[in-house]
Amino acid sequence: MSTPRYFIGLMTGTSLDGVDATLLDFSSPRPRLVAAHGHPLPDELRAALMRLQAPSDNELHLAQLAANKLSDVYADAVAALLGKASVRPADIIAIGNHGQTVRHRPELGFTVQLGNHARLAELTGITVVGDFRSRDISAGGQGAPLVPAFHQAIFGDPTKHRVIVNIGGIANLTDLPPQTAEPAGQVTGFDTGPGNVLIDAWIQQHRGERFDAAGSWAASGTVIDDLLEWLLAEPYFSLPAPKSTGRDLFDARWLDAQLAGRNDAPEDVQATLTALTADSIVAAIRRHSPGVNEVFICGGGAYNPVLVTRITYGLPGIRVANTEELGVDPDWVEAYAFAWLAERCLTAKPGNLPAVTGARGPRILGAIWPR
Fold this sequence. Notes:
CATH superfamily of the largest domain: ATPase, nucleotide binding domain
Radius of gyration: 20 Å
Strand content: 15-25%
């Protein structure tokens, strides 16, 4: 029996719904998920991170305080994860920590993911690998999405043309052509646009709830066709790939601007925002993935049946399921990916796909804070 090679992946996404923590064993060709843990973000920290999504007074000071607090929460998540698995910190090779994105401006040459990696290394006694996106951006890329290389390694199939759709705060897709074709198809991917970010913002504003559980509020409304058409006219949707986006574009301010002068029922707006996410994903797949056989969904959106049903209806003849069928729970795919990226960094293997990000070539991603 081979000696375990343990890595931890940490992820807090655009939705700010908590810390996803995964423990992976890389002793075999396909990493094995040993344990997973979802850790809540304190309300005060979540609010501070939300405020940092937009420029504010004393921003640098507030960002550093939030990064410290966030790293304390990451350390608590790691402790809980290791407790579940009965694994010691000394047995972990490294933590791959994505950090919390508060700015993503690749067109200006930078991206910011908050997290005090040195503090996390001190608190856990484990090597930390972080800042995965900066090297790709420095090489002329978008720095996002980074998960397609992981999707290729874990979800690719020799004969089937698959698309993996991650629906977090922002939605992204990975196109995985069958690799036995001659010539083998190139793996591509990009951010399709809003995932849950607008859906969550609208229900928070009107009902004080963080997310639309099972899409039930959207199901109570009716899609407003002219509003949906207007929202889909956002220029981002027609931009060619490589492209990436975030709260720098799709946020409550963007939504307020689109709704200016209207007086639609809130539940109908919720139904329309859900349709916006679904239809922008469907349009991206139909445009960029001709001949696809299967679509697998991960992220929080995989649990919204209203959203998934609309995507399914928009892709007749194509099988739509979630990544559980491929052996990875939809909740843990991104955290899994950052454990994988940490392992790639420490073994000096590239973690990006230039065809996805637009970088000048493959790059080893991440910086290292030793234990």
